[in-house]
Structures are given as C-alpha cells and as structure tokens.
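=== RUN LOG ===
request id: a7f3
mode: sequence -> structure
chains: 1
length: 97
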Amino acid sequence: MRLHLQAVMIVLATFLNSTGMATAVEPAPAPPQPMFLKLQEVKSAKILPDLGEMSPEIAILRVDPKTQATQLLIRTPKGIHVRKHWHTANETHEDGS
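=== RESULT ===
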C-alpha cells in the first residue's frame, strides 16, 4: 500500500509540474507560534484614560512582519459595552474568564 501511495504522489507531482500548476500554488503561511507571557510583564495602556481604573486597557502582543496582522490583548472591566463597529480585516475574540 505504501509503495502504491508513493507512486501516486510521484505521478501527481509530475503532472502538476508539467502543467505549471505546481508553481501556481503558494504554500500556506506557518501558524503563529504560542506565546507564553506573564500578565504582569505585558505593557498595556488605558484606552479611555478619563475613566481612571474603570478604563479598558490594550496591549500589542505581536505584529506579523509580512501581513501586519496584529494580535492585541484588551482587558475590560465587567459590564463594558463595545458599540457596533467593523474592521477591514478579520477579528477573533476569546473570553478571558
């Protein structure tokens, strides 16, 4: 079975190279590596300084040098409401509780 699979892969690679399809496919970007940070060591800034201790805080954790995708940590007090808004790129959320 293993030899059969290898033969199929060789035939497929030969076909893709001969048709030019092999060069048309870009490799998928490597997934980001896990980050291990102590919360006390993360530099954050108040988003709404006028609120004092009730202000949400933001920290930039990583910026992808190629795509400029930015990973942020936003900490908010309970009960804060984020108004409807949009971004030009994807956004994901994690519940920190």
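=== NOTES ===
Residues 2-75 form one domain.
The chain has a mean pLDDT of 74.
=== END ===
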